[in-house]
Design brief:
The protein is mainly beta and 204 residues long. Helix content is 11%, strand content 53%. The protein has 3 helices and 12 strands, in the order ααβαβββββββββββ. The protein has a 10-stranded antiparallel beta barrel. The longest helix is centred in the first third of the chain and has 9 residues.
């Protein structure tokens, strides 16, 4: 059974049918979609060196822009889901990757960000009355080797992800915002995508 269906319980059935399809991962299943990020923005320019370092671990990146093509690939293996988000800027491809697992005792999704993971977050899923979903990060930790160091709130990048489905356009919608309690917005993007049947294609 899908780890997302497990963590959402009965609320899963309130999701829009296309979002149920999107999050109903089974063993060895793959979801591939392609689309456009209408806008990718960030925080203060002095954060750029941090983003350049993060890009080396496929966690955030310094580039910004409008109408950026992207592909999202989700692969399931042994009750964990690998997320690869590829953003195609002119002359360069950037990634924002993660591995998610279910902590059944706490009923949360564990989100390991980057490759190899450098940040950990608990994820909480909330389904709206209209069938969209909001995913919020909590309890972040810095990963150094096998050590997990809790991050004080002032150093955390709190992520809020909103996904929906637009019936008129026939597309999934996505809005991601990462904010720090002191700095404010650190990173954000907004766009839309459609499921892509050819799992090996990167032609946009």
């Amino acid at each position: 059974m899908s780890i997302y269906r497990d963590v959402m319980g009965e609320a899963f059935h309130r999701l829009h049918p296309m979002l149920q399809k999107r999050y109903c991962f089974t063993t060895d299943s793959t979801f591939v979609a392609k689309g456009t990020m209408h806008v990718i923005t960030g925080g203060p320019r002095w954060l750029a060196p941090l983003f350049w370092l993060a890009a080396k671990r496929k966690l955030l990146f310094p580039e910004r822009g409008c109408n950026v093509p992207f592909i999202i690939t989700n692969r399931t293996n042994e009750k964990q889901v690998h997320w690869e988000r590829a953003f195609y800027f002119p002359g360069r491809t950037r990634y924002f990757n993660a591995v998610m697992r279910l902590d059944s005792e706490r009923c949360v999704i564990e989100d390991y960000l980057g490759e190899s993971a450098v940040v950990y977050s608990d994820l909480v899923f909330v389904v709206s009355d209209r069938g969209s979903i909001t995913i919020s990060s909590q309890n972040q930790r810095l990963l150094i080797g096998k050590k997990e160091i809790p991050l004080p709130k002032m150093f955390q990048g709190i992520a809020t992800v909103k996904e929906g489905y637009d019936d008129e356009k026939g597309v999934y919608t996505i809005n991601v915002s990462v904010r720090n309690p002191i700095i404010g917005r650190v990173f954000a993007y907004e766009g839309e995508f459609v499921q892509h049947e050819n799992k090996n294609s990167r032609n946009l």
